[in-house]
Automatic annotation (TrEMBL):
Keywords: FAD, Flavoprotein, Oxidoreductase. This is Flavin-binding monooxygenase-like. Gene3D superfamilies: FAD/NAD(P)-binding domain. One of its GO terms (molecular function) is flavin adenine dinucleotide binding. InterPro entries: FAD/NAD-bd_sf, Flavin_mOase, FMO-like.
Amino acid sequence: MTKNILIIGAGPAGLAFIMAVYKHNFNYTLTCYEKEDKIGGIWSKEAEEIKINDNMYYDNFGRYKLDDNQIYKFGDYEIKNENKNIWLTKDVQVFLNNICELTKINISFNKKVIQIKPLKEGFNIEYIDLSDKFSKIHISHFDIVINCSGPHAVFSDKIINTSDFKGPVLNYHKNNILKELNNSIEKLKDKSILIIGMSFPCLDILNLFKYYKIMFKKVYISDYCKAFDFDDSRINYFGEIKKIKKDTVYFSNNICKIDLIINTIGLSADSTIYPEKYQFYKGMICHNVENLYSLANPGPLYCGFNSIYIRATYIVNVINGNIKLANEKDKLIEIKNLENKLKELSYKKYNDRINFLIEYYENLINDINKKNKLKDINIEKMLNSYDLLNYLNKNYINQ
């Protein structure tokens, strides 16, 4: 029976999933909803002449560089570029447009998903048409949902309302916050800052504070961030945020005055669409709702399109039944082990952390497929894991 799949988002992650389905000839009916009127996600909003490496991330050691020739190469398909040593934002758009032409995917633009409702079988998707200012809520049904709606999907089932806060609110990824913070070092001096969110976005900001020796007064963050220990008495872990009013944040057991909010949950990911019990952990497959998956989008900002494609291939194989997920208890153990490992890597170079995430897939596949242990593959610490991708294609497709 043909699976009816919805892909939310037509950025690099959404198109990577579409490409994975296309290349492996799975008989799925694909529908893609994109809230903008064009593909590309965050890359459609960048100036056309920005070099890829000019838009790279910061870590403890400053900027890191990637091999431009490898950033967009995966499988046997790559962008045609006369000068492969210089990648501009417009080249990313050309590359993504080529995927649309190759796969002949039909993308529904101006469709904003506002709610995913799990049913006994499949999901009801509520969405509005942004091209119609009087649009009513439409409902469609899908067997499987792949969320690719933002570089950092929601990490919580509760969205924090910051509308009553009287000070500035910086939204991670919405305003290119790392560059904004870089230009506002003096403004952060002696300020009490609330960071909403967890994991890598929070870590990036704390690393930036450390790297530039920002003399903030206090930082308050969720206890989820304890996966990363910073030996700094100014950083406080106060747990769940109940509400924010004017200049005060109310935690479960504490009340604190703040001057600035940094929201790392990722507003571009349209956090309100997620079911109540849905969990997502930085690109890993960890969900409490069957047939609802998330494909994180590190994309060109992080480690290249190939890494997204590896994850997309993995999810496609899970959907097709070639890879069996571990049970819920085992998944929670995997996440705990992952958090401990990330804690060890938190002060290492960003590439080392990305390499670990790639290696994680080898270990996960090995754990949940006891009959097919990866004895003939050696995943070294490399950025573009073609060996892993080829192994997935060879051993887990059409078996």
